Amino acid sequence: MKKIEHIGIAVKDLEEANTTYAALLGAENYKTETVESEGVSTSFFKIGESKIELVAATNENSPVAKFIAKRGEGIHHMAFAVDDIEAEIKRLEAKGFQLISKEPKKGADNKLVAFLHPKSSNGVLVELCQEAPARPS
Question: Where would I find the VOC domain in this sequence (predicted)?
Answer without folding.
Answer: 3-131
